[in-house]
Design a protein that fits this description.
With 295 residues, this protein is of the alpha/beta class. It has three domains: 112 residues, Rossmann fold (3-Layer(aba) Sandwich), CATH 3.40.50; 97 residues, no CATH class; 39 residues. It has eleven helices and ten strands. Strand 4, helix 5 and strand 5 form a beta-alpha-beta unit. Helix 1 crosses helix 6 and helix 6 crosses helix 7. It starts with a strand and ends in a 7-residue tail after the last helix. 23% of the residues are buried.
């Protein structure tokens, strides 16, 4: 980080600069308000001596309002600490202090700022995706919820919209990666669970019975019929089809669909969904060099 140190006690300023430098931070020292006001504003942090700033503390804080401002105060009062904090300073430390405490405060607030930046980015991203794609309104009921969609992307976007609007958080589970019968579910957590469609028929029924007593949001990438009290069906929405920027040939489409879904459905059911006989499916699998996956 780039750190500006406004302190007229030369030894103290140099000691802070040396300690911060040892921790990988680049420091600039100024000893007067005039010097500070002539510096550019692109510092990550400002260590501001309130005894040096005096009545001009407000001007300095406003100039460096995008920096992490830590006050170096000799005592606590309205002028030295309380008003500067209201103006935008992040924290304060009383002289004399331990150098490690200064470093801890600076790095703590830098981590906070980085987290805020990431959160703003993610919020902006999800808002962008929701605007680009057709996302239905949320149901009024609480989990457990089953989301039926034709693409994992659409189910995920819907689940993330739920998390954002309900201001909640998920734990993420993939049913292809865990044995749900053995998994230790926390009743206080909400789980977003994917790949339900890969379970076998009886296992699906058992899992949904189990889910009735849990805080689950389950994605099901299929239009198969299931019995569950709270189902959000978005399979009819246009963006669920995930049609790309290029038009595929019928042969390419067949090859991709067989490769993607042949491990999910028995041959008879997959052939029926593709509108062909089981023999034709076998011939196409051989033609395209697709090895049949074992469950």
């Amino acid at each position: 980080m780039k750190v500006l140190i406004l302190e007229n006690e030369t030894y103290l300023a140099q000691s802070i600069s040396s300690k911060l430098g040892d921790n990988g931070h680049a420091c600039t020292i100024v000893s007067s308000v005039e010097e500070a006001m002539n510096k550019p504003t692109h510092f990550d942090a400002l260590l501001l001596s309130t005894s040096v700033a005096g009545s001009q503390c407000k001007d300095i804080i406003l100039k460096f309002r995008d920096s992490i401002i830590i006050l170096l105060a000799s005592y606590v009062s309205d002028d030295t600490v309380m008003r500067p904090l209201l103006l935008g300073a992040k924290d304060y430390i009383i002289k004399p202090f331990i150098m490690d405490e200064v470093i801890r405060k600076i790095e703590h607030y830098k981590e906070c700022e980085d987290l805020k930046t990431k959160i703003r980015f993610l919020r902006s991203y999800f808002a962008f995706i929701e605007n680009e794609l057709q996302v239905p309104n949320l149901p009024q009921y609480a989990p457990p919820i089953l989301i039926k969609a034709n693409s994992q992307r659409s189910a995920d976007i819907y689940a993330m919209k739920y998390a954002r609007e309900k201001q909640t958080f998920f734990k993420f589970l993939n049913l292809k990666s865990i044995d749900w019968n053995e998994y230790n579910f926390d009743d206080n957590e909400i789980y977003y669970i994917t790949n339900f469609e890969f379970l076998k028929k009886q296992e699906k029924k058992d899992f949904l019975d189990f889910a009735l007593k849990k805080k689950f949001i389950i994605s099901m990438i299929s239009d198969d019929k299931v019995i569950f009290p709270q189902i959000v069906d978005i399979t009819s929405m246009a963006n669920n089809l995930e049609i790309g920027s290029e038009i595929l040939s019928v042969k390419d489409y067949e090859r991709i669909v067989i490769s993607k879904f042949e491990g999910r459905y028995p041959d008879v059911e997959l052939a029926k969904k593709l509108g062909m006989s089981r023999k034709s499916l076998w011939e196409k699998r051989k033609k395209y060099g697709i090895l049949k996956k074992k469950n």
